Amino acid sequence: MLTKKKDKKIIVTKKRPFFIILKFFLLFVAFFAVAGLGIFIYYAKDLPRPEVFEERQLALPTKIYDRTGKVLLYTIYGEERREPVKLNEVSPYLIKAVLAAEDKNFYTHHGIDFQGIFRSILINLKIKKPVYGGSTISQQLIRSTFLTSQKTISRKIREIILTLELERRYSKDQILEWYLNQIPFGPNIYGVEEAARSYFNKSAKDLTLAESALLASTIKAPSFYWQHRQELLKRKDDTLKKMLENNFISQEEYQKAKSEKIIFSEHKDNIKAPHFVLYVKDYLEKKYGSEYLKEAGLTVYTTLDWDLYQKTKEIIQKNDEFLKSYGAYNASVVILNPYTGEILTMIGSKDYFGEPYPKNCTPGKNCLFEPKVNVAVYGIGQQPGSAFKPIVYVTAFQKGYSDKTIVVDELTNFGKWGNKYYIPQNYDGKFRGPVTLRQALAQSLNIPAVKVLLYLAGIEDSLRTAKMMGITTLDKPGSFYGPALVLGGGEVKLLELTSAYGVFTTEGLKAQTKAVIKILDNRGRIIEDNTQTSLRRILDKNACRLINSILSDNKARAPMFGISSPLYFPGYWVAAKTGTTDSFRDAWVIGYSKSIVVGMWVGNNDNTPMAKKPAVTIAGPVWHQIMLEVLKRFKQ
Question: Model's pTM, two decimal places?
Answer without folding.
Answer: 0.76
